[in-house]
Design a protein that fits this description.
52% of the residues are buried. Helix content is 32%, strand content 20%. The chain has two domains: 263 residues, FAD/NAD(P)-binding domain; 168 residues, Flavocytochrome C3, Chain A, domain 1. The strands form five sheets. The protein has a six-stranded mixed β-sheet with strand order 6-2-1-10-19-18, covered by helices on one side. Strands 12, 13, 14, 15 and 16 form a five-stranded antiparallel β-sheet that branches. Bound molecules: flavin-adenine dinucleotide (FAD). The site of flavin-adenine dinucleotide has 42 residues, from helix 1, strand 7 and helix 14. It catalyses: succinate + NAD(+) = fumarate + NADH + H(+). This is Fumarate reductase. Keywords: FAD, Flavoprotein, Oxidoreductase. Its cofactor is FAD.
Length: 500
C-alpha cells in the first residue's frame, strides 16, 4: 500500500464502486461512505444496459465517430465536447474491463432511442445489467478486501454532511482535506481526513420532498408534478454540499431528463415512485398508444422527444375508472408476443409485478375505455385498424407517419400491454468537471483534491442523455478519477525527501 493518505469515495453506485476498485487494485487506501444500508444506488436498478463501441458483441458497422455524433446530437449543442471524447473513446475499454477482467456477461446488444446502431450491452441471462455489474465489481472488491483488510473501509449508513477544507495560499482557493459524515444508525457525527475526496453521490431526480432545500424546486419547479424512477436516496447531496463548502460550479442544473415511460401500477396509481419501463421495451419492437388508442410518435427517437409528444398528446382529460388524475399523462405500451420473447426476463418481471397484461385487441380496448371514457365509442375494429396500419409499416420497412426505421414483429393475436407515464429519471446537470473528473469552482479553477464522478457531475450529456451512457460514464470517469489520483500520489511519493 502507498504511504499517502486515503481517498474518500462518497456513494456506492457504479461511479463510486469503479473508483474504489480501480484505486484498490493499485494498492491505494480507500474509505467508501454510503448513506443507505446497501451498496449499489440507482446503478443496481439499471435495466437497459451500457454502451460500448466497437465491441466484439456488436455485429454491425458502428464506430466511435457515430457514437460521438449521436451523443452530441442528443445533447442539443450543450454537451462539453472534451467530455464526450473521453466517454466515447473509452467505451470499448470499459466493456472489455467489465467482461474480460471482471467476467460480467454483457453479450447481448440492443439499439436504444437516439442511437444509430445497436450498442447497448447487457447480459444474455436473467440478471438486469446494472445489478450484474454492481455484483461483479463488489465481488472483486470483497476479494481484494479479504486479501488486504486494511486497504479499504466500507462504511454503510454513513451520510456525507460536510467537506473539510483548508484555504490554500492567497487567490488559490480552497483545498479539500476530508469529510464530516453522520452515522445514521447511531446519529454520531465523525470526521475522516484523506488526500482526495471523490463525490459519487448520484443525481437529484428524487429531490422533491424538502422544498426549500430541493434542487428540483430551485432549478425546475415545473417538474415537481412528475413521479420519479429514482430511489429516495437520490437527493443531490453531493451537488449541494460541494456548492456550499467549496463554491463548486453547478452546470446545466435545469437539464433534467423526463423518461417517457414509467409503469403505472394499477394497484397503486398515485404512488410517486414508478418502476421504469425500460427503453429496451421499445427497442425490441414496442409501440406507444395515446389514451385515445392512436400511435403518436417514432417510439425510438430520443427520450426528450418521445416525452414531449406524450405531454402533447396523452393528457388525461376526464375522470376515469382507472383512477388516473385529470391533468396527468398516460400512454399504453404494446409489445407483440414475438418481440416479448426477445426480453423474457423484463417481460416476466413486469408481468409478475402486475404492470403488464397479456390479451387481444378487445382486452386492450377495455383498458383504453377505463382510462378514457370517450373510448366507449371506439370499436375493436377501429383499434385493429391502428394496429394493422403499424403492421403494414413493418411489412414495408417504412413508417410514413412517424418515421420509425427499426421495427420488431407484427402485433397479432395475443400481445402484451401496460400503462406508462413520464417519470423524472436523470439529472444531466451537476458539478462541473474536467476530463479527469476534477471538480471546478465558480471561478473556473480546479478544486484541489475534489473529484465528481457519475451522475453527480454535469456537462457531458448536455440537454439529453442517451440510454446506456450513464453506466458508461460512471465506469469511464471512475477510471479517469482513479488514474488522476494515482498519478498525484506517485508524484507525491517521488517528491518525498530521500525518494529515488
Ligand atoms: C430505474 C433506472 C434504470 C436505469 N437504467 C439505466 C440503464 O439501463 N443504462 C444506463 O446507462 N443508465 C441507466 N439509469 C441511470 C443510471 O442508473 C444512473 O444514472 C447511474 O447509475 C448513476 O450512477 P452513480 O454511481 O453516479 O449514482 P448512483 O448509482 O445513484 O449511486 C449514488 C450513491 O450515492 C449514495 N449517496 C447519496 N448521497 C450520499 C451522501 N450524502 N453520503 C453518502 N452516500 C450518499 C446513494 O445512496 C447511492 O448509493 C437508470 C436509472 C434508473 C433509476
Amino acid at each position: 500500500m502507498t504511504s499517502n493518505g486515503p481517498t474518500i469515495v462518497v456513494g456506492s453506485g457504479l461511479a463510486g464502486l469503479t473508483t474504489t476498485l480501480e484505486l484498490l487494485s493499485q494498492n491505494h487506501h480507500v474509505i467508501l461512505l454510503e448513506k443507505t444500508d446497501k451498496l449499489g444506488g440507482n446503478s443496481a436498478k439499471a435495466s437497459s444496459g451500457i454502451n460500448g463501441v466497437p465491441t466484439k458483441f456488436q455485429h454491425n458497422d458502428d464506430t466511435v465517430d457515430a457514437f460521438k455524433s449521436d451523443t452530441i446530437k442528443s445533447g442539443k449543442g450543450l454537451s462539453n465536447l472534451e467530455l464526450v471524447d473521453v466517454l466515447t473513446l473509452n467505451s470499448k475499454n470499459a466493456i472489455e474491463w467489465l467482461t474480460e477482467e471482471l467476467a460480467i456477461d454483457l453479450s447481448s446488444v440492443a439499439q436504444l432511442g437516439g442511437h444509430s446502431f445497436a450498442r447497448t450491452h447487457k447480459g444474455a441471462g436473467k440478471l438486469p445489467p446494472g445489478f450484474a455489474i454492481i455484483q461483479g465489481i463488489t465481488a472483486k472488491i470483497d476479494e481484494l478486501q479479504n486479501a488486504t483488510p486494511a486497504a479499504v473501509g466500507i462504511l454503510k449508513n454513513s451520510r456525507l454532511e460536510r467537506l473539510v477544507v483548508e484555504q490554500q495560499g492567497e487567490g488559490k482557493g480552497l483545498k479539500v482535506k476530508g469529510v464530516e459524515y453522520k452515522d445514521t444508525a447511531t446519529g454520531e457525527v465523525k470526521v475522516v481526513l484523506g488526500d482526495n475526496v471523490v463525490l459519487a453521490t448520484g443525481g437529484f431526480s428524487a429531490d422533491s420532498q424538502v422544498l426549500d432545500k430541493s434542487l428540483l424546486h430551485r432549478f425546475r419547479p415545473d417538474l415537481l408534478k412528475f413521479p420519479t424512477s429514482n430511489g429516495e436516496q437520490t437527493t443531490g447531496d453531493g451537488q449541494k454540499i460541494a456548492e456550499r463548502d467549496v463554491d463548486a460550479d453547478l452546470i446545466h442544473m435545469d437539464q433534467v431528463q423526463v423518461h417517457p415511460t414509467g409503469f403505472i401500477n394499477p394497484k397503486d396509481v398515485a404512488c410517486n415512485w414508478k418502476f421504469l419501463c425500460g427503453e429496451v421495451m421499445r427497442g425490441i419492437g414496442g409501440i406507444l398508444l395515446s389514451p385515445q388508442g392512436n400511435r403518436f410518435v417514432n417510439e425510438l427517437t430520443t427520450r426528450d422527444v418521445v416525452t414531449d409528444h406524450v405531454l402533447q398528446v396523452c393528457e388525461i382529460t376526464a375522470e376515469n375508472e382507472f383512477g388516473l388524475p385529470v391533468g396527468s399523462f398516460a400512454s399504453v405500451l404494446v409489445v407483440s408476443d414475438e418481440d416479448a420473447a426477445k426480453a423474457p426476463n423484463h417481460i416476466g418481471f413486469y408481468k409478475f409485478q402486475g404492470l403488464l397484461d397479456k390479451g387481444t385487441t378487445k382486452d386492450l380496448l377495455q383498458l383504453l375505455r377505463k382510462i378514457h371514457p370517450s373510448n366507449a365509442n371506439v370499436s375493436v375494429q377501429d383499434l385493429q385498424l391502428v394496429i394493422d396500419e403499424y403492421n403494414s409499416a413493418i411489412a414495408k420497412g417504412k413508417d410514413a407517419k412517424y418515421g420509425r426505421t427499426v421495427f420488431g414483429q407484427p402485433i397479432t393475436g395475443e400481445f402484451y400491454f401496460g400503462l406508462t407515464t413520464p417519470v423524472l429519471h436523470f439529472a444531466m446537470g451537476g458539478i462541473k468537471i474536467d476530463e479527469s473528473a476534477r471538480a471546478i469552482n465558480k471561478k473556473g479553477q480546479v478544486i484541489e483534491n475534489l473529484y465528481a464522478v457519475g451522475e453527480v457531475s454535469g456537462g457531458l450529456h448536455g440537454g439529453n442523455r442517451l440510454g446506456g451512457s450513464s453506466l458508461l460514464e460512471s465506469v469511464v470517469f471512475g477510471k479517469k478519477a482513479s488514474r488522476s489520483i494515482l498519478g498525484k500520489s506517485q508524484t507525491q511519493q517521488q517528491q518525498k525527501p530521500g525518494h529515488i
